Amino acid sequence: MAYSDKVIDHYSNPRNVGTLDKSKANVGTGLVGAPECGDVMRLQIEVDENQVITDAKFKTFGCGSAIASSSLATEWLKGKSIDDALSIDNMEIVEELALPPVKIHCSVLAEDAIKAAINDYRVKNGLPALEEAKAH
Ligand code: FES
Ligand code: FES
């Protein structure tokens, strides 16, 4: 399988690998798995009082495309409001990384992880849960 230069760049030099303190009220954690391959992705966001994402971290146990998708996702998340972050669509990740069809589910994992993290933040802070969080 030929990876694009952007996948190789994110895979070799992943942005924002790490862990945020999930016991903090302003940290949302999303943990999702891909039924297709068993790969697992954890994505976390830290949100300020204006509901803007100030930090994002990930750990992905999976393929190069999943690592690149989550690395890219953390870059896109920083500075976005949690509402704007919800509009990140996996197909934008597919386009940016030039993922082939068999790797589309790797980008779906990233979108699901974003929504799960936002949902966790919302529930922790007394906001209604996102129905979309488990939509895929
Ligand atoms: Fe091989 Fe995901 S299927 S790492
Ligand atoms: Fe399953 Fe990439 S997440 S192959």
TrEMBL record:
Gene Ontology terms describing biological process: iron-sulfur cluster assembly
Presence of keyword Disulfide bond: no
All residue ranges annotated as the NIF system FeS cluster assembly NifU N-terminal domain in the record: 2-125
Single Gene Ontology MF annotation: iron-sulfur cluster binding
Pfam families: NifU_N
Listed Gene3D superfamilies: 3.90.1010.10
Keywords assigned: Iron, Iron-sulfur, Metal-binding
Keyword field contains NADP: no
Function (record text): A scaffold on which IscS assembles Fe-S clusters. It is likely that Fe-S cluster coordination is flexible as the role of this complex is to build and then hand off Fe-S clusters.
Family: Belongs to the NifU family.
Official protein name in the record: Iron-sulfur cluster assembly scaffold protein IscU
